[in-house]
Amino acid sequence: MSEMPTRAQARAQEKSAGPAVRHGRLKRHHPLKALLKIFVAVIAVVGVTGVSLAAYAAVDVVAGVKKSVKLVDTKGNTVTPGIGAMNGAFNVLLAGSDSGGGNAAYGDRGENLNDVTMLLHVSADHKNATVVSFPRDMYVSIPSCPDPKGGSFDAMSRQKINNSLSYGGLACTVLTVEKLTGMDIPYAGVIQFDGVIEMSNAVGGVPVCVAGDIEDPYTGLDVKAGQNVLQGSQALAFLRTRHGVGDGSDLGRISNQQVFLSSLVRTIKSADVLSNPVKLYGLAKAATSNITLSDSLNNPTTIVSMALALKNIDISKVVFVQYPNHYQGDGVVPTTDAAQQLTEALTNDQPVTLTGNTGVGSEADPNAPAGQAPVTQAPAPATQAPATQAPATQAPTAGTGSTGDGSSVTLPSDVHGQTAAQYTCSKPFSG
After folding, report:
1. pLDDT band at 303 (very low <50, low <70, confident <90, very high)
2. pLDDT tier at 103, thresholds 50, 70, 90
3. DSSP states of 58-96 as a string?
4. 124, 88 in Cβ contact below 8 A?
5. CA-CA distances (angstroms) from residue 11 to 20, 252, 308?
6. Which of 30, 48, 127, 258 has its Cα between 20 and 30 A from that of 324?
């Protein structure tokens, strides 16, 4: 290997080379902003990986950040979170698109539906996190949304929530969930199929328990009963499968996804991942390269602040909950009283306690590690209860303040979910 030239030799070589040829004006980047991004990324990575990896990782992660999306309020004004937002509670929405992101491997999928819509709420004291999954077939009202090409779309009184992404993009999905819950959501992102694959690869796979063999030709999922470490295309197929689990419904898919997500949280929080610089760097790279972020979230300082807020939350305080709903016609509608209990708890910054079972797509893991809290398993009905309540409109408007007294709100037994500390297994389709 040749020796590196000295600084003096490098200057001499520059002079002898003559003036550089200019082929056009390069885009001017604000030097302070670029340096700040690199500096913050270096600090974040050095703290866990060491200097040798940090220099390369910082530049590479910043370069991988995708173009961001502007969020607006109901009047069309740009949402700009306060500088001190991470000092208190915060809400982040993640939409999972079924478009395939233009990857020909998934075929011509046509529509761009948000078949996964999840809202993360982190409490002001950073001791609790609640992840709410909204069923894709849930009928809601969609407010007037900005057209990404200019102008705006008219409001719609009754549409399935998974139409919001194709209707007005990520901003429309955020506005729809804000109208439904009465909560402010200043941060959001959209993840495509390839993003799910890369995220699962970045952590070296996610271990999941399967109560019986699952084979789903629609998604390509093929897993055997017992423990499976899923990554790549099988992780994607597992998260997408509907026909292979529970009763074949989207509600079964949500509880199946919570099996995966709870294990993902345990995996990321495990000593192995937290001490492994390759996995940590890969996870950051996969996230920034495969998720389209809102303007408010497309900032290394914001991401670092969120990571610090989440780092020390006990896994038993990470709650995954299905937004309260019941069947009506060819879809589901919000269950008014339970939905209001949930959203008011989050608005008032109170943790929630689940009393229902984990849902039709999962069950308790009989081989859970000793000492783990048992999963509450009330008898699961064959189908959800018929509609006995009027569809929810908007919950009382409130912000994400910490006005609650910190006491837990107990949700009714027909609200399904689990904590990240609970070990569950995916339940094969039962017909």
Report:
1. confident
2. low
3. HHHHHHHPPPPB--B-TTSPBP---TTGGGS-EEEEEEE
4. yes
5. 14, 66, 43
6. 127
Distance from chain centroid for Cα 271:
22
Cα torsion for 393, 253, 423, 365, to the nearest 10°?
Answer: 130
13 Ramachandran zone, left/alpha/beta (phi>0; psi -120 to 50): alpha
Task: Looking at 148-205, list the stretches that DSSP marks H as alpha helix, in order from N- to C-terminal side.
Answer: 164-181, 193-202
Q: What is the pLDDT of residue 274?
A: 60
* pLDDT of the residue at 75: 79
pLDDT beyond 70 at 395: no
- Reduced to 3 states (helix: H, G, I; strand: E, B; else coil), residue 325 is strand
Q: What is each CA distance from 56 to 105, 223, 281, in whole angstroms?
A: 31, 37, 10
Say what the pLDDT of residue 402 is.
Answer: 39
Contact 314, 190 (CB under 8 A): no
Average of per-residue pLDDT across 350-369:
96
Token pair, residue 205, equals 């796979």
**Amino acid 406: pLDDT:** 65
DSSP designation for 236: H
Decide if 134 contacts 124 (C-beta within 8 A).
no
Q: Tell me how far apart the terminal alpha carbons of the chain are, to the nearest angstrom.
A: 65
Show Cβ contacts of residue 195 under 8 Å, excluding neighbours closer than 6 positions.
101, 286, 287, 289, 290, 291
Q: Which residues contact 306 (CB under 8 A, 6 or more apart)?
A: 86, 90, 92, 122, 187
Q: From CA 83, how far away is CA 91, in angstroms rounded?
A: 15
CB-based contacts of 26, cutoff 8 Å, min separation 6 = none
Percent of the chain past pLDDT 70, that is, above it, reads 68
Q: pTM of the predicted model, to two decimals?
A: 0.77
| pLDDT greater than 50 at residue 422 | yes
